[in-house]
Each structure stands twice: as structure tokens, then as C-alpha cells.
Amino acid sequence: MPDRPFRRPTAGAAVALAYLAVCAALLVWALVVTATDTSDESMAGVIPLLATAPASFVLLLLPGGTAMVIVAVAVGALVNAAIINWCGRALSRGSGR
């Protein structure tokens, strides 16, 4: 393996990982609340979709039921985390000059 210097993760990467953790927790919470709720009035599934908007809304239009909601939230969270990481790197690169 070539010797590469250790690069510290940027603040954007830490924020992106925290965002992914929050989105995963919201998704698990929504699934648990929806599964344990006896009435059909639970709107808990809306919260993870709003947290991962706008990418999750695009995938939500595809048919598939609960599985597609999970995929939409996961893809939306990954897209938003990549954008957060990119913004963090761009901001830290500009402040070093």
C-alpha cells in the first residue's frame, strides 16, 4: 500500500454523517410508530420525507408502497448528505486562502 498522509475529515463530512444519522433515526421512528399505531391516521411517515426533501419526493412518485418510501428516504438522505459534504469542503477550501 502506498503511504498516504492521514487527512482529517472536514467539518462538512461530520455534519453530513450527523445528518445521515438523524435521517436514519427518523425513518426507524416513523416505521415503529406506523407499525404500532392501530388507527390509519398516523402521519409519522411524512417527517422523514420532509427531512430528505427534495430528492425523496422525486422517488416517492414511483409505485412500490412501503419499500419505495424507505428507498426514497434513503436515497434522498444520501443525496442531501453528499451536497452537505460538498458545501462543507467548498467552504473550508475558500477559508484557507
Helicity range: over 70%
Mean pLDDT comes to 85
Order of helices and strands: HHHH
* Biggest pleated sheet: none
Output the number of helix runs.
4
* Beta-strand segment tally: 0
The proportion of strand residues reads: under 5%
* Shape field: elongated
Termini separation: 32 Å
> Pairing-aware structural class of the strands and helices?
mainly alpha
How much is the radius of gyration in Å? Answer: 17 Å
- Which regions contain 5 or more consecutive residues with pLDDT less than 50? none
Could you describe the 3D structure shown?
The radius of gyration is 17 Å and the shape is elongated. It contains four helices and no strands. Helices cover 70% and strands 0% of the residues. It starts with 10 loop residues before the first helix and ends with a helix. By secondary structure, the chain is mainly α. The chain has helices at residues 11-36, 46-51, 55-60, 66-95.
